[in-house]
Amino acid sequence: MLFCMAVLFSGCGSRRTAVNGHGDLVGSVLGGKAGKRIAKQMDAQRLSLAAALPQIPVATENRGEALKLSLPAAAFFEPNSNALTGEARPILHRLADCLAQRSDTFIRILGYTDHTGKAVWNLALSEKRAQRIYDCLRDDGLDAGRLGYEGEGFRNPVADNARDSGRRLNRRVEIWIYAGEQMMREARKGWLR
């Protein structure tokens, strides 16, 4: 699990790098009491996101030190496109409002597709979709330094690609939220409660 999380936060390129600059996992860096303090802060943000965006599941990851929102492609994008649906923009605006309340977190946006079609096309589409979410959040006022995005293509499926229902679940954009440098520093010093 830790290796998978390390891979998730690593990358190459400018906007596609791990947004904290080094890709360290919060739990492996902090552990103990500091990790618990961060988990408490992340749980408060999870509750805030769940209240503001009831249609998007918010999962707790990495022992509570990271959050994951999974946006289904069918609800947010036109088929085979990175064009947003009419329902997507208001939801993304509310998401940006929630994320703006915690400037001490980093946001990593990962786009995914199903396995149908050519790998190169799927990778490009997944990156364009992740970038579209990145652009919307940035346009709504989030600091670009807190944001990163990457296309994953059809890697890391969450369901069986042999069935239409599984392919539908695999077409998604995940938004990962984790502690930024400031939150980690405050947790180490015992300032987070």
- Quote the beta fraction: 15-25%
Q: What is the number of independent domains?
A: 1
- State the CATH architecture: 2-Layer Sandwich
Query: What is the class in the CATH system?
Result: Alpha Beta
* Cα-based radius of gyration, to the nearest Å: 16 Å
Provide the CATH topology.
60s Ribosomal Protein L30, Chain: A
H-E order: HHHEEHHEHEHEH
Low-confidence blocks of residues: 1-29
User: So what's the overall shape?
Assistant: globular
Give the distance, in angstroms, between the N- and C-terminal Cα atoms: 27 Å
* Quaternary: single chain
Mean pLDDT: 85
How many β strands by DSSP? 5
CATH superfamily: OmpA-like domain
Main pleated-sheet profile:
5 strands, mixed
Side-by-side strand order of the widest sheet:
1-2-5-3-4
Q: Determine the fraction of residues in helical runs and give it as a percent range.
A: 40-55%
Structural class determined from secondary elements:
alpha+beta
Number of DSSP helices? 8
How does the SSE layout of this entry go?
Layout (H helix, E strand, L loop, with lengths): L1 H7 L17 H4 L2 H21 L5 E4 L4 E7 H4 L11 H13 L4 E8 L6 H21 L7 E5 L12 H7 L1 E8 L1 H9 L4
Parallel strand pairs: 3-4
Antiparallel strand pairs: 1-2, 2-5, 3-5
Helix pairs in contact: 3-5, 3-8, 5-6
Structural account:
With 193 residues, the chain is of the alpha+beta class. It has one domain (2-189): 2-Layer Sandwich (60s Ribosomal Protein L30, Chain: A), CATH 3.30.1330.60. 45% of the residues lie in helices and 17% in strands. It has eight helices and five strands. The chain has helices spanning 2-8, 26-29, 32-52, 73-76, 88-100, 119-139, 164-170, 181-189, and strands at residues 58-61, 66-72, 105-112, 147-151, 172-179. The protein has a five-stranded mixed β-sheet with strand order 1-2-5-3-4. Helix 6 (119-139) links the parallel strand 3 (105-112) and strand 4. Helix 5 (88-100) crosses helix 6. The relative contact order is 0.20.
